[in-house]
Amino acid sequence: MTETNPSSTTRPHTLGIDFGTSNSAAGLAVAGRPWLVELEPGETTLPTAVFFDSDTKTRRIGRSATRALIEGDEGRFMRALKSLLGTSLLYEKRRLGGEMMDFSDVIAHFLREVKTRAETATRLEFTHALSGRPVKFHSKDEARNTRAEEDLRHCYQKAGFQDVQFMYEPEAALRAARPHPGIGLVVDIGGGTSDFTCFEQDDSGGTRILASHGLRLGGTDFDRQISIDHVMPHLGRGAMIRNSFGGGSLPAPNRIFNDLATWQMIPFLYGPDTRRAARDLAQNAEDRSGLNRLLQVLEDELGHDLAFATEAGKIRANGATDETAQIDLRIVEPGLSAALPRAALEQSLTQMVQDIQDEAAETLRLAGVSPGNVNRCVMVGGSALLMAVRAALQDLCPTALIETERAMTAVADGLALAAQDAAF
Questions:
Q1: Is the separation of the CB atoms in 62 and 28 below 8 Å?
Q2: Domains contained in the chain, number
Q3: Which of 246-250, 325-329, 336-340, 353-357 comes out lowest in average pLDDT?
Q4: Which range of residues forms the domain containing residue 213?
Q5: Alpha-carbon separation of residue 139 from 37, 192, 263 (angstroms)
């Protein structure tokens, strides 16, 4: 690895960072091409996950954090931390790894580790960062959008960066896309948000951005709905609870199940109050089997295991050629599974896919472009590869070529390229 401009003594070294809800990456430009840092041996993407080990009082990130969870180490696992930006939860203090901290401290620790690993790999000191950000952290609340960027800036500064600039993630992805004349649409479905950029390119590759737009909906929302529809019924969602103060029964309240299906809410469920509430539901249930499983999940802190199982089931169902796909729930009970044929998967995602199509159409409206004039859709992010999402974009832009070849690295590659031009 060599410095891109060794003669410069005044320009700061800037690291391009794609801090994602599910995965992160970092890189810089070398000889005009993106070079992504190996943040783990042989891997340029790093799961955006942190594990606080109760025994050693240490923190582990990335795949090491995920392994700690899977292997049953004692501690607290966290993922989807980006979703807390712009919310009051970000600054709530918790005892983690033997010390009091808030979630901005956790994000800062993760970013500091990315910075350290990049500096070790390149032998450069990165004092500045160019960070990707969603077009909208929060769909309809501009004050929270502003606060979310301020929160993320604060996290970068706590991580040791002197300054940070931000670039919309779909615009970063466009920097890495192959040039092609005509009008195109970047569709970036990340873990927590969906972002769109409409652009025009000429024969020489010159690019003009026409509009960018987005909404707070992404892959973790897909996982949440799939879990609510197909996993939570096995844990007692919908079970009838006898009224202890009178006759009759009512369905179990949805809140515990909804939170258990939500990546960023899972760590908040392991306190005594939630376990007590679940125990009360089980004691008064007409059928206790599902709620007994819920109690086991809470007592053994299996919420993230269920979330990973749901995510894996989604991927299997999307690629299945028959109707036998399942969500493997053996972590809860031997032999337990939830059927998830592709038709059921797409039924669960119908409204969200429609929302994505609607906001893509709104992006084109803001750009003053007719959908029939779009000749390419550049799909970015793992959830953009879902067949239902691709079909919705093809339906919106019937003459467009659907491009997926750089779906998993386009944002990071674009930020790496753009970092060399960042003006601090």
A1: no
A2: 3
A3: 246-250
A4: 182-219+347-407
A5: 32, 11, 19
